[in-house]
Specification:
single chain; globular; 5-stranded parallel β-sheet; 13 strands; 31% helix; 5-stranded antiparallel β-sheet; 9 helices
């Protein structure tokens, strides 16, 4: 069996209606009892629902949040996070105000927004945190990431705008299917780079690691592991990067992936 299974959240662990199947939880618990490390590998921050998922998967383990910008050991609060380039932040905030787009600005455990409104309120509910329309200037910790939250129809335009020295990680959620979440990190920071650091901590070679995902922001992780798995609902880039394909998130695809990991 493999040594480490990395699990995306939206569209992989969490399905339509923000629901996680009981058989998926059972399969993940069984793998952990058999000695497999389980790591959340999400674009979400280490707060609210994502933190609760990580604590249930492995309360003493390392988990990847914010597309690799935030690597947190949830039991102790230890962090291996990557700071966002400070010189890039004012320009992005200014662009958000000029265009009227929602930009979210994150530290490890807090975030702020440029534009209060429906998207910001719905995303807070998805994250499982209270809606707080605080401005970016109110954040006191180290910023690790920003994220554009825009209509799917605007994704192409945003991705093609200049983001010098930064990497963009577009993703979606079945809970907000009409919205694109375009995470922005320091160049070179990704789910893939974060998984390599976690695997090294555990002493697990990358050819004994599985990544299960469904979105374009999972591709960097799928490319560095020995066993990349695409969900049945996966986007084309994730399918192209995969070695295995399992069922749709709502049909227990993640359970299939975990069961596969125990046979490899």
């Amino acid at each position: 069996m493999l040594g480490l299974i990395c699990v995306d959240v939206d569209g992989t662990l969490v399905g339509t209606g923000n629901v996680i199947r009981d058989d998926v939880w059972a399969a993940l618990a069984d793998a952990r009892e058999k000695g497999v490390h389980i790591a959340l590998c999400s674009g979400r921050p280490a707060i609210g629902n994502a933190r609760a998922y990580a604590e249930r998967l492995d309360p003493d383990g390392w988990h990847v949040f914010q597309n690799g910008a935030s690597i947190v050991k949830v039991s102790s609060g230890e962090s291996l996070s990557e700071p966002f380039p400070a010189q890039a932040l004012p320009g992005l905030i200014g662009r958000a105000h000029e265009t009227g787009r929602l930009l979210e600005v994150y530290t490890d455990l807090e975030f702020a927004i440029t534009h209060p409104g429906e998207y910001a309120e719905r995303h807070a509910a998805l994250l499982g945190v209270p809606y707080d329309a605080r401005p970016p200037e109110s954040l006191e910790g180290t910023v690790v990431r920003v994220q554009w939250v825009v209509p799917r129809t605007d994704e192409h335009a945003v991705v093609n705008e200049p983001h010098d020295g930064l990497d963009l990680h577009p993703a979606g959620s079945p809970v907000m299917p009409e919205v694109s979440f375009i995470s922005v990190t320091r160049a070179g920071v990704s789910k893939g780079s974060a998984i390599e650091r976690i695997a090294a901590h555990y002493g697990v070679p990358m050819d004994r690691v599985m990544m299960v995902g469904d979105g374009e922001n999972d591709v960097s992780a799928m490319r560095v592991v020995g066993h990349p798995v695409a969900m049945g609902n996966a986007d084309p880039p994730a399918i192209a990067a995969s070695r295995y394909r399992v069922a749709h998130v709502d049909d227990g695809g993640l359970r299939e992936a975990v069961e596969l990991a125990l046979t490899l």
